Amino acid sequence: MSDLFFTTEIDGTNNLLKEGVPQEKIHFVGHVMIDNLFYQLSRLQEAEKTLITYISKIVSKGPTSA
Predict the structure, then answer these.
(1) Is 26 helix (H, G, I), strand (E, B) or coil?
(2) Burial code of 47-57, b = ≥16 C-beta within 10 A, e = fewer?
(3) Are 47 and 24 contacting, i.e. CB atoms less than 8 angstroms apart?
(4) Which of 27, 31, 37, 63 keeps 20 to 30 A from 15, CA to CA?
């Protein structure tokens, strides 16, 4: 019925193989939500560095008079 099968877990690939689906039709693509979690984590770490740098510059200038 399908020409291509995309799996997000190794168990899915193994199940398709047990059902007789040829290996060349199965494509392991990874887990989209986990991949996105790692991507967002790296973005947050960069934002944290930027925020710390910005706050450090403000603090190092000391209080300012209005």
Answers:
(1) strand
(2) eeeeeeeeeee
(3) no
(4) 37
In eight-state DSSP terms, residue 23 is G
Residue 44, SS3 per DSSP: helix
Q: Are 26 and 17 in contact (CB under 8 A)?
A: yes
pTM of model > 0.70:
no
The answer to whether the CB of 10 falls within 8 A of the CB of 28 is: yes
Tell me the per-residue pLDDT of 26-51, one tens digit each, with 9 for 90 and over.
999 988 899 899 999 989 988 888 88
Cα–Cα dist 36/31, whole Å: 9
Evaluate whether 29 touches 6 at the Cβ level (below 8 Å).
Answer: yes
Contact 32, 6 (CB under 8 A): no
Domain ranges of the chain: 5-60
Give the list of residues 6+ apart from residue 45 with CB closer than 8 angstroms, or none: none
